[in-house]
# Entry
Amino acid sequence: MTDSKHPFIPYNGKSYSEEEMIERSKSFYDWVNKRRSVRDFSSKPVPKQVMENVLMTASTAPSGAHKQPWTFCLISNATLKSKIRELAEEEERKSYGGRMSDVWLKDLEPLGTNAVKEFIDIAPWIVVVMKRPYEITEEGGKHQNYYVSESVGIASGFLLMAIHNAGLVALTHTPSPMNFIAKALNRPENERPFLLIPVGYAAEDAQVPDLARKSNSDVIEYYD
# Structure
């Protein structure tokens, strides 16, 4: 399939037998099911090349009209991380102190979360995922992007899997509102903070909540 204006290239994927598909899909699920959100980080350095690789993996995600409406801000500067932590905790104190409903706070109890976000200082890297609702043209105009939140959400999922694959841990943090991040990073007007993700090794004494994920009967509806 080709188009004179927009050329196509052959798809270069690989197929497997039914037996192989079942084995590969099961082993991949078992591996992914070990991924956990971690709040106890080690300060042990992580090579920059690793971070670049996982971010470029995230950038392979599908996006509306292939606009790739994301920017990944990769932060290791200690001063900047401390500034972001200070601003994040300011918003979190407001959230835990009244913006969140009682039901919301009760739902968070099993996770042991609070307004203290020391992982921002401790983790060797902070990734701020920015979404771009539009692009700024050379003439200073605006060119719309499409399905931006959906596209950036998918890319963020790819990112978490790439981090897990590298033997690292991550946490999706969403201090709300998040406008302070764009200002702290001096980002352009067409970028909006989507997620703040600390990345690094788990601390040796790291613990995670003893939680169970929903079963297939809870998340799958069959229409045979």
Notes: The chain has one domain: 37-205. The radius of gyration is 20 Å. The chain has a mean pLDDT of 94.
